[in-house]
Amino acid sequence: MCIRDSQENFVPFPFGSAISAEAAGRARRELRENPKPPSAPAHPNRRGRQPATPPAMWRRASHLLLRTTAAAVTRRLPHPHPLPPPPRPLPLAPPWVASASSSYATQAAAATAAPARVPRPLRTVGSLLRLNDLRDNPGATKQKTRKGRGIGSGKGKTAGRGHKGQKARGTARFGFEGGQTPLRRRLPRRGFKNRFSLTFQPCGLGKIAKLINAGKIDSSELITMKTLKETGAIGKQIKDGIRLMGRGAEEIKWPIHLEVSRSTARAKAAVEAAGGTVRLVYYNKLGFRALLKPEWFEKKGRLLPKAARPPPKQRDKVDSIGRLPAPTKPLPFTPEELEFAAKRDAARVITA
């Protein structure tokens, strides 16, 4: 910032200082009363520039401006206001009040510092629990990992799959090994599964005699596979039928009549020696259901199915087709059945 003197010369003013119009006028009058001498001709090398101001003139103008600036700044400073009186000290509270207030403050600070998550109490109506209040125990459930939700989650961008490759782009079928021969084809085959195999539940004559002596089976009536299943002579699953075994054959001392799927030669001979009969009958899967649980068809509103004929591979191993519903009286053998049974037993002896 500069001010102009009487001879149209600019005198520098300290930058950033505050000066009033009165101080500026006083400075001009001072310069007008004491003008500076005429300047010397310009040096040829200065290209017509004005000569520099004498040092004495600079110092005088600087001192004058600094005095006037200080006076102006002093006049413009605001008067300091008196400070308010200090507040009067409050009376001391009783000890019990101080302790209570401090405890309350401590509790409030602790609550704001670390708020403990207290589970919401269950609302009940009397002794009954509301269905809308049922929830898992704390920590019993875990939130599902959300993938592809930014790098801050730890599962963003590639979502834990890595960069490129088959495992990053999709999945291969089970057992696929990238094109090479899989393990299931490299290992040799061994054995086979017989599609025509049958599984029979064994039942010994000793167990049947024990149930007869206990009064659970009536020996005067026909003993069917349903009777043996209900009395616990076999397990829960009857599978393809029951095979009569000769264990405990010496305990059979009275005539009994049986209808089973298979029978050993020893068991059949023991029953016939006591005056009883053993008939081999055929039931398929549906026939066994109708024999063991006829109430199932009644519940479904269906009629009992007809007994199925045995397949060709089992015709020479049974005596007749099973009867539905479960019979209670034994069926006498016809001459043709007796002849066929004799041929079957003879063929079994020759094979053995």
TrEMBL record:
<dbReference type="InterPro" id="IPR030878">
    <property type="entry name" value="Ribosomal_uL15"/>
</dbReference>
<feature type="compositionally biased region" description="Basic and acidic residues">
    <location>
        <begin position="25"/>
        <end position="35"/>
    </location>
</feature>
<feature type="region of interest" description="Disordered">
    <location>
        <begin position="23"/>
        <end position="55"/>
    </location>
</feature>
<dbReference type="GO" id="GO:1990904">
    <property type="term" value="C:ribonucleoprotein complex"/>
</dbReference>
<feature type="region of interest" description="Disordered">
    <location>
        <begin position="129"/>
        <end position="184"/>
    </location>
</feature>
<keyword id="KW-0689">Ribosomal protein</keyword>
<dbReference type="InterPro" id="IPR036227">
    <property type="entry name" value="Ribosomal_uL15/eL18_sf"/>
</dbReference>
<comment type="similarity">
    <text>Belongs to the universal ribosomal protein uL15 family.</text>
</comment>
<dbReference type="GO" id="GO:0005840">
    <property type="term" value="C:ribosome"/>
</dbReference>
<feature type="domain" description="Large ribosomal subunit protein uL15/eL18">
    <location>
        <begin position="204"/>
        <end position="278"/>
    </location>
</feature>
<keyword id="KW-0687">Ribonucleoprotein</keyword>
<protein>
    <recommendedName>
        <fullName>Large ribosomal subunit protein uL15/eL18 domain-containing protein</fullName>
    </recommendedName>
</protein>
<dbReference type="Pfam" id="PF00828">
    <property type="entry name" value="Ribosomal_L27A"/>
</dbReference>
<dbReference type="InterPro" id="IPR021131">
    <property type="entry name" value="Ribosomal_uL15/eL18"/>
</dbReference>
<feature type="compositionally biased region" description="Basic residues">
    <location>
        <begin position="158"/>
        <end position="167"/>
    </location>
</feature>
<feature type="region of interest" description="Disordered">
    <location>
        <begin position="305"/>
        <end position="335"/>
    </location>
</feature>
<dbReference type="InterPro" id="IPR005749">
    <property type="entry name" value="Ribosomal_uL15_bac-type"/>
</dbReference>
